[in-house]
Amino acid sequence: MSSIEGAFSPDGPLAREIAQFRPRPQQREMACRIGDAIAGNRVLVVEAGTGTGKTYAYLVPALLSGGKVIVSTGTKTLQDQLFNRDLPRVRKALKVPVSIALLKGRANYVCFYHLARNAGEGRFASAGDAADFRTIARFAQTTTTGDKAECAGVREDSPAWLAATSTRDNCLGQDCPDVKECFVLEARRRAMEADLVVVNHHLFFADVMLRDEGLGELLPACNTVIFDEAHQLPEVASLFFGESVSTAQLVELARDTRAETLAAAADCRDLIDRARAVEKAARDLRLVFGPESERLSLAQLEEREGFQQALDTLEEVIEAFAAVLQTQAERSEGLGNCLRRCDEIRERIEKWRSCTGDELIRWVEVFSQSAALNATPLYIGGIFRRQLQAQPRAWVFTSATLAVGTSFGHYCGEMGLSGLEPEPMTEIWGSPFDYGEQALLYAPMGMPEPNDRGYVEAVARVALPLVIASKGRAFVLCTSLRAMREVHERIRAGLEQAGVDLPVLLQGECSRSELLDRFRQRGNAVLVASQSFWEGVDVAGEALSLVIIDKLPFAPPDDPVLTARVDHLRRNGRNPFMHYQLPRAVINMKQGAGRLIRSETDRGVLCVCDPRMIDKPYGKIVWRSLPPMRRTRSEADAVAYLEAL
Question: What pLDDT was estimated at residue 119?
């Protein structure tokens, strides 16, 4: 028996040392397969259903491999869980002398320079933000890591963190007066020395693209890369392999320049005025668009009145700003860094305006307070493939949702894994949960087509009796913010009219972590949310017994990146719907459905309102990709099931 297989045996080290450990054949087989991939420097793509225990399945062979391993996660939540809980447990059970390190992007670490610079300025929107800043300042004096996840008194999304951390843009690097105390540099040093490093996908690709000084050393030194939550990689890779510049970066640059000018060049009033002009021009560019968030193609931008003029004005204003900043840059490290940032932003805008050809998709994403100019690669597979072939090492890709049916063709194609020599190894291990007993899939009858004007009202009408029967304890997951807000209002009004008192929470009312805390604590809440709650959310137990999905999660047909990729596939004689849109929707659907059953004792109903899952020929591909739940089209069955829980 191999040491990996032995670790998972009923009387092995994991069973002896970890109280919650239960031997599962899927987990043991997956671990052995990963061990084979590591030993042979192979590429392995693994789908492991919820409850398989994939974390231990890759940690055991990683810790026993004897080489340097990078484990990359899609979320910081899983990153922290791995480093603080799972890794120490497994390492202790296996009794292996493996050093481990946690590495995040620099915006996750307190920066002494920015903390000191902003301490006396009092530029906070509320007394709460100012109090958060004081808490962070006290935390900085006692922490050994500087990791903001350890500062329990301040929310992760508090605006105070912007004044207490650095970014790639405003970090002074080796010129910083506090460089010897820098938490970022210390975290990198530990990562370089460790046998196993836990990073996240964003940081991994920053390393690949050498966008951060010093980070490019991580990847060449490792023998194995393991991606958990690997379904997120195509999206993250597109972000890093492309180019982006936002009005928010310009506003931040303008504010930082004003602060640095007051500290080191207060006699140069012209620079302060020029910085204000940059901030105004950046905000004016954002005001060209409406109040709602949107994504616009190049063709749509050409038709948008005022866009070209606002962009021309912004470039002129930046040019004038840079000319004055050049004359003051030597007066402090901070001003010198502002000039470097200004030059980089000018270069990115110029690149965005001038790039042509089929390889890059130019588009703009509009947020509530900012707008970003993006140039996204049409296809990231070729770029990523070069990383795979750079030097021999093992690559493991794992998630609960990578396959469409039993095929990994879509995922391997997107990531450039198809056609490698040798071919990637692929495996699917289903969930050990008994979905036939634990869950019911309900597809309501009589639903209108999703593009019907009354569709959202019909979704709320379907949801109401289910929510009442389950006594809350429900997620209602919508594919658009507009539908989310309307469904929330209709469910809230319907419950009020029925005289049923249940808390109905809405994404955006507060931070994601606060919403989840409220949902868990109340025990009878309904949470209406959109895409950001479709994955990475784990509510085990009775607090969640019902998941309602309004539509199959196809990307909006007017999405600029989707449109460009669809056109490209069509020109190459392929069916964009079957080769790209449907596989992506299936993978997203599996993520949303995966919120329901999180443990052996969970039970509940998954309601998919979209009639296309039943009426369209491709609907079979969707529901056959979901866990094998018992199925019904009867509302009475679904209500009775929920009432019996």
Answer: 82
